């Protein structure tokens, strides 16, 4: 079995590549970094360090790498059983032409074995978005062929991969926990048993539960931790007041999720506690500056705070804790992060209320007032 992985970064190596290799796939990474490609092809293996109370290492071998724009990639795409991405949502448009060319090449070679493409990104229905981009580059005949033989399956992924530095560049550290849910209705053929991968008929519920619990809580911890002067995420959870605030934010998002998807309340509370335990892992030295970077993007209408606020408003639920998290994000001051300066300039040029609406998409006077009051408290 062959897997083509777009993105040879820490998530590609430490999560998706490691899981697929342990399931028996031969792994080929596609990347744009020539030094990284050469190193993978020279070493042909790397270590994944599992950071937990019982630390251990996993050796990932059977790997190779190609440049995303190479002719060689088309041949690999033609013979692959699965292709994944771990490149970030903003890079998906850059790889769509490569995938389109791969489908054309696969059709020309008359390979009618089912192939599945799974985007493993922090975004809602990222694979469907990628499919739309790819299909915009195919002819009607090619689209019909792809509809028959190529699956574009949406997924949700969850594993903390902190910034770490090792003497060997390919080594990567991850938490022990991971979760990978895939929409089985969108698959072509069947996937082999992949440990930790869960096929589901209701991906949207899994995806939104993850994004608006894990990512919402993680970012809120980072935003508040940065303001409070903490360097690492786990330090924030040692602060009882900060932890209580983050918990309230996650519960408020959870109330909106429960209203929308009818989750069991106690089960969701248990999920929140599990997630908080992951954040508190002292072996994961995860920087608040890493988790909180790009605040303008993360405060956007479809992401971790504004989206659950919109869900809450539709169910007439409170939003004050989520609004506080937005105010904290708008108060971020991370050295070297241009989005922090963009937020400051937008507030200076257009005023706080207009900046809130432009960044978050929120127009509710109640929400804008909540964010404004919390922002002013942070800047007293």
Instruction: Estimate what percentage of residues fall within beta strands.
Output: 15-25%
- Give the low-confidence spans: none
* Fourth CATH level, the homologous superfamily of the largest domain: NAD(P)-binding Rossmann-like Domain
- DSSP helix fraction: 40-55%
How would you concisely characterize the structure shown here?
This protein has helices spanning 10-22, 34-43, 71-79, 92-108, 126-135, 140-149, 203-228, 233-237, 240-261, 265-279, 288-291, 295-298, 306-314, 320-330, 338-350, 352-360, 365-378; strands at 2-6, 26-31, 45-51, 56-61, 63-67, 82-85, 115-119, 150-152, 155-158, 172-175, 179-183, 197-200.
Describe the structure.
- It contains 17 helices and 12 strands.
- It has helices at residues 10-22, 34-43, 71-79, 92-108, 126-135, 140-149, 203-228, 233-237, 240-261, 265-279, 288-291, 295-298, 306-314, 320-330, 338-350, 352-360, 365-378, and strands spanning 2-6, 26-31, 45-51, 56-61, 63-67, 82-85, 115-119, 150-152, 155-158, 172-175, 179-183, 197-200.
- Strand 1 (2-6), helix 1 (10-22) and strand 2 form a beta-alpha-beta unit.
- The protein is 53% helix and 15% strand.
- The chain has 380 residues and is of the alpha/beta class.
- The strands form 3 sheets. The protein has a 6-stranded parallel sheet with strand order 5-2-1-6-7-8, with helices on both faces. A 3-stranded mixed sheet has the order 4-3-10, with helices on one face.
- The longest helix has 26 residues, at 203-228.
- The protein has 2 domains: 2-200, Rossmann fold (3-Layer(aba) Sandwich), CATH 3.40.50.720; 204-378, N-(1-d-carboxylethyl)-l-norvaline Dehydrogenase, domain 2.
- The radius of gyration is 21 Å and the shape is globular.
- The model has no long low-confidence stretch (mean pLDDT 97).
């Amino acid at each position: 079995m062959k897997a083509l992985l777009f993105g040879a970064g820490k998530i590609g190596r430490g999560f998706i590549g490691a899981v697929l290799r342990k399931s028996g796939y031969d792994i080929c990474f596609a990347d744009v970094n020539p030094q990284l490609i050469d190193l993978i092809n020279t070493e042909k293996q790397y270590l994944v360090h599992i950071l937990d109370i019982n630390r251990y290492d996993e050796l990932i071998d059977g790997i190779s790498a190609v440049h995303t724009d190479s002719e060689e990639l088309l041949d690999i795409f033609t013979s692959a059983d699965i292709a994944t991405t771990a490149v970030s949502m903003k890079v998906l448009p850059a790889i769509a032409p490569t995938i389109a060319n791969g489908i054309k090449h696969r059709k020309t070679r008359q390979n009618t074995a089912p192939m599945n493409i799974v985007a493993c990104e922090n975004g809602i229905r990222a694979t469907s978005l990628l499919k739309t981009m790819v299909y915009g580059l195919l002819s009607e005949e090619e689209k019909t062929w792809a509809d028959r033989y190529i699956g574009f399956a949406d997924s949700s992924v969850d594993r903390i991969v902190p910034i770490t530095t090792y003497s060997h560049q390919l080594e990567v550290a991850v938490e022990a926990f991971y979760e990978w849910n895939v929409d089985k209705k969108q698959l072509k053929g069947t996937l082999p048993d992949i440990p930790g991968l869960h096929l589901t008929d209701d991906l949207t519920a899994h995806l939104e539960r993850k994004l608006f619990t894990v990512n919402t809580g993680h970012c809120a911890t980072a935003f508040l931790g940065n303001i409070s002067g903490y360097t690492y995420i786990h330090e924030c959870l040692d602060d009882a007041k900060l932890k209580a605030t983050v918990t309230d934010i996650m519960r408020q998002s959870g109330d909106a999720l429960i209203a929308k998807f009818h989750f069991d309340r106690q089960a969701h509370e248990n999920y929140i506690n599990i997630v908080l335990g992951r954040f508190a892992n002292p072996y994961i030295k995860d920087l608040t500056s890493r988790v909180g970077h790009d605040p303008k993007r993360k405060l956007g209408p479809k992401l971790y705070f504004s989206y659950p606020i919109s869900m809450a408003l539709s169910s007439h639920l409170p939003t004050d804790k989520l609004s506080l998290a937005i105010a904290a994000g708008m108060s971020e001051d991370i050295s070297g992060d241009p989005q922090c300066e963009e937020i400051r300039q937008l507030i200076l040029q257009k005023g706080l209320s207009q900046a809130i609406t432009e960044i978050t998409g929120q127009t509710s006077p109640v929400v804008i007032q909540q964010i404004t009051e919390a922002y002013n408290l942070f800047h007293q």
